[in-house]
Automatic annotation (TrEMBL):
The keyword Amino-acid biosynthesis applies. PANTHER family: CHORISMATE SYNTHASE. NADP(+) binds at residues 57, 63. Pfam families: Chorismate_synt (PF01264). Reduced FMN (FMNH(2)). Pathway: Metabolic intermediate biosynthesis; chorismate biosynthesis; chorismate from D-erythrose 4-phosphate and phosphoenolpyruvate: step 7/7. HAMAP family: Chorismate_synth. The gene is aroC. This reaction introduces a second double bond into the aromatic ring system. Its EC number is 4.2.3.5. One of its GO terms (cellular component) is cytosol. It comes from Peptoniphilus indolicus ATCC 29427. NCBIfam families: aroC, PRK05382.1. This is Chorismate synthase. Homotetramer.
């Protein structure tokens, strides 16, 4: 078995051209955090609003998620005074306070199916801290949400709003939203709900579904639909710096993402050109009557709402027995995973998806 060395083990923890975000830490380390370069000096951060945004992602907030409890309150250690950005570089940390590293000892030798345990061992050897999945953990999306929460506040002052909802879980679908004229007020209300969907009837069905999944010690995936309104025309470049390509890269960097599509997405394969094309109308400026393109044409934003869907896989850690193998003994063996895990990651991932959307928009606007 080849263990990769030297230059082959360099890891990328940064993204962005004008607003550069660097995430650091490990799931069970003392701290996780973020360094952000390029945010406008003098920007006032609404800390209460930022903490509310962070709480939507935080674990242990209701019975439909993991029982791990972390408040995830960011502490700014550089570049921010009294809530105001006072330097080109700012840094914030979050203390990890509720780890159970002993739950992960067995995975050093017996890798978990659909986790990074085995590929991390092959690529990095035994030196990487893989407790709680280490640098691969969804825990690292918490500092990402610090950057995304600030980006959302900056965009709101520019008249740009980013919101999302769960469009489906286990085949249970929320109400459809008009892509050309999304109801952002209804989407905003989802922030306050245990299950972030618009329909109360759908919410109750999803709760029953998740309770059933939890009792079976299993997990289930979700589809997230995200919208951004007020985005100006002209963000992005053709080909490799297109708006949709850059956003897709960041979305796929979020752990658990398995699919991504703009506008009509994969439904476009069964549509005719007549059905899919977004015809123009002159209505308080140039608009399109539909928005199957999801707000991006030729890699450039066209002034219509940004609309995209993200497929989230079922939580890989489940209580049911699964087939694995022993690295040291090179024999197959059964694995039962203990610990505290989400029956559905999708419930807590919405602010993460909103964060990468907001950061992509802001990065292009600061060009």
């Amino acid at each position: 078995m080849k263990i990769l060395k030297n230059w082959e083990v360099n890891m990328s923890s940064s993204f962005g051209k004008n607003i550069v975000v660097t995430i650091f830490g490990e799931s069970h380390g003392h701290y996780i955090g973020v360094v952000i370069d390029g945010l406008p000096i003098g920007t006032q951060i609404d800390m209460e609003k930022l903490n509310e945004f962070m709480s939507r992602r935080a674990p242990g907030k209701n019975r439909f998620g993991t029982k791990r409890k972390e408040r995830d309150l960011p502490k700014f250690v550089a570049g921010v005074q009294d809530g105001k950005i006072v330097a080109n570089t700012i840094c914030a940390i979050i203390e990890n306070s509720d780890q159970r590293s002993s739950d992960y000892e067995q995975f050093k030798d017996t890798p978990r199916p659909s986790h990074a345990d085995y590929v991390a061992y092959v690529k990095y050897g035994t030196e990487m801290d893989m407790r709680g999945s280490g640098s691969f953990s969804g825990r690292l999306t918490a500092p990402l949400c610090i950057a995304g929460g600030i980006a959302k506040q900056i965009l709101e002052k520019k008249g740009i709003e980013v919101q999302s909802h769960i469009s489906s879980i286990g085949g249970i679908r929320d109400v459809e939203i008009d892509y050309a004229k999304p109801d952002m007020k209804a989407l905003k209300e989802c922030e306050k709900k245990e299950i972030p969907v618009i329909s109360e009837e759908v919410s109750e069905k999803i709760k029953q579904c998740i309770e059933k999944i939890r009792k079976e010690e299993n997990s289930i995936g979700a589809e997230i639909e995200c919208f951004a309104t007020g985005v100006p025309i002209g963000l992005g470049e053709p080909n490799y710096d297109s708006f949709d390509a850059v956003l897709a890269k960041l979305v796929f960097s979020v752990p658990a993402v398995r699919g991504f599509s703009f506008g009509a997405g994969f439904d476009a394969v069964s549509m005719t050109g007549r059905e899919h094309n977004d015809e123009y109308e002159l209505n308080d400026g140039v608009k399109t009557t539909t928005n199957n393109a999801g707000g991006v044409v030729g890699g450039i934003t066209n002034g219509m709402p940004i609309v995209f869907k993200t497929a989230i896989k079922p939580t890989a850690s489940i209580g049911l027995s699964q087939r694995s193998f022993s690295i040291s003994e090179n024999v197959e063996k059964d694995l039962e995973i203990k610990g505290r895990h989400d029956p559905c990651i999708g419930i807590r991932i919405l602010p993460v998806i909103e964060s990468v959307c907001a950061l992509t928009i802001l990065d292009f606007m600061e060009n």
